[in-house]
Amino acid sequence: MYGYTSFLLRVLGKRGLGQLSSLELAIIIGFGSAVGDPMIYDDVPVIYGMIAVTVITFMQIGLEKFINTNKKAESIMDGEPNLVIDDGIMIYENMKNDNLSREDLFRFLRLNNVTHLGEVSKAFFETSGQLSIIYKTAELVEPGLSVLPNNYVNKTAVSANEKITEPGIYICRQCGNSSQFHKEDIVYHCAKCHGDSWVKG
Known about the structure:
Layout: H1 2-12, H2 22-40, H3 46-68, H4 71-78, E1 82-86, E2 89-90, H5 92-97, H6 102-111, E3 120-125, E4 131-135, E5 157-159, E6 168-172, E7 178-181, E8 197-200
Antiparallel strand pairs: 1-2, 1-3, 3-4, 5-8, 6-7, 6-8
């Protein structure tokens, strides 16, 4: 069963062994059930398992061909990538739809060598569960919200209704929006997310 399953995975090709879509996850679960029983239980003939995984394999191949030629079916089965960062600002609504937490997003960004959101033009949460990032060119990078863990960020925060003592660009701690504050300005709520806490960029 192990050898035959390895052969069928080779038939499926590299795409079946890459990042899993929902359809590919289903075949892995199906393979596990079909392969496991003949390997464990004496009363389940090996031929039954071979028939089961063969049927699953050809169903997978047929579904993939159908989905690749039918955009509507592809959208239903795999979903669509979601924009989660736009010009350095987090889009919480899309993150919520994908059950993507701020901490998970920051972890993805750190793994892709991002230190703050000002470096990111756009980021998409892909249907594979991975994050794809479009970086800003060096001359377009702006101050942005740090993605480092909190204990590595030493910048002091200011809150809404406080008076600015040190002028400059400040970053909303909730969404990453930036705003220019002058000395003696009264800190206001973020126009993007209504956040009330800012750090100096």
